[in-house]
Write a structure and sequence with these properties.
Layout (H helix, E strand, L loop, with lengths): L1 H38 L15 E4 L2 E2 L4 E6 L13 E7 L5 E8 L6 E6 L7 E9 L31 E5 L3
Parallel strand pairs: 2-8
Antiparallel strand pairs: 1-3, 3-6, 4-5, 4-7, 7-8
């Protein structure tokens, strides 16, 4: 009984060690998969990310009634926004309230020029301008053109670093 108990214990000990080894391997694989997910989903062998091109606001200071231009050159990557692409331009006043929100035509590669007149009642102070490709979700690190579905809005941009270019509104 002592011998068979010892052998049986050894077999169960070996089985237990094997189960622990498999569990450890599965746990390790899960951790690696999670880390890979955190690193991004972009195919390393694919083209580099193609994010929207940087835009500028000129002049940097304006008075109510002045004309301001928001523009971007075409991206140097293959953006493929499409023939009917649009950019959404938003102007926020110093209190963070959207004063203007309009769509303008954009090229397939993201270039655009949008001109607006500073509204007469816009308060003096540091305002800001954002310009993003319309109906796209850019809250990832892949640079892939993630077109949002048409119809009712189902995507809400969250936890994205929003680029806000300053526009100083001078007293009229």
């Amino acid at each position: 009984m002592g011998d068979s108990g010892g052998k049986s214990g050894s077999k169960q000990g070996a089985k237990g060690a094997g189960a622990r080894l498999v569990a450890t391997a599965l746990c390790g694989a899960s951790i690696l998969a999670a880390l890979a997910g955190l690193a991004g989903c972009r195919d390393a062998a694919g083209p580099p990310p193609c994010m929207p091109p940087a835009y500028s606001v000129t002049p940097a200071e304006a008075r109510p009634g002045d004309r301001v231009t928001v523009s971007a050159q075409d991206a140097t990557c293959d953006a493929r926004y499409g023939a009917d692409a649009k950019v959404q331009v938003t102007v926020r006043d110093a209190a963070g309230i959207n004063i203007l929100e309009e769509l303008a035509p954009m090229t397939d590669d993201g270039g655009f020029t949008f001109v607006f007149t500073v509204p007469a009642g816009m308060a003096a102070g540091e305002a800001g301008v954002t310009a993003y490709p319309y109906a796209l979700d850019w809250c990832d690190d892949t640079g892939v053109n993630n077109r949002a579905a048409s119809g009712p809005e189902t995507l809400i941009r969250v936890s994205c670093a929003e680029r806000l270019v300053p526009l100083v509104i001078l007293a009229g």
